[in-house]
Amino acid sequence: MNTTTPATPKRKGPMHWLKEAAIVLVMWFMISGAVDLWRTQGMPETAIPDGVLQTIDGESVDLIAMSQDKPVLVYFWATWCGACKFVTPTVNWMSEHYEVVSIALTSGENRRLKAYLNSHDYPFRVVNDAKGQLGRTWGISATPTIVVLKDGQIQSATTGITTLPGLWLRLLLT
Fold first, then answer.
1. Exposed / middle / buried, residue 112 (Cβ in 10 Å: 0-12, 13-18, 19+)
2. What is the pLDDT of residues 82-124, one digit of tens each?
3. For burial by CB atoms within 10 Å, which of 18, 61, 96, 103 has the most?
4. Would you say 35 and 159 are in contact if contact means Cβ atoms under 8 Å apart?
5. Which candidate, 5, 1, 39, places its Cα nearest to that of 142?
């Protein structure tokens, strides 16, 4: 008859869980970066399409000129985009501290866009790309897409859900 008691499993300490968390974090950054690279492969490498854009309020916007003094955040989104509902409040907050120009892709007429923006209290500039032509020119393949411009050049681009710290860091690093 065996009288030894079974060994109790060894309890994992905080260092084990820190190591596990670090591994998951590194994997998340690698996968997220790979997805960004894949989704933004059709975008211009550095130079942006030239031209002056018109906002839904009739304001002329020259992204190249705007980005000469400080970074400009260009936000490609749509009213029908589910992920944009999470990202747009972050972009709205950023618009209080940085220049933001948003481009609404295939989201309807100006009147509809203005109603949407007013109902959500979003004051940032909006260019209506009703037929998606501007999005195609920029090589946008997913919404939301956020591009950071400096001196008329693309410094950073990301797609999908973006956090406030991540977006803020992208702007600081330009």
1. middle
2. 999 999 999 999 999 999 999 999 999 999 999 999 999 999 9
3. 103
4. yes
5. 39
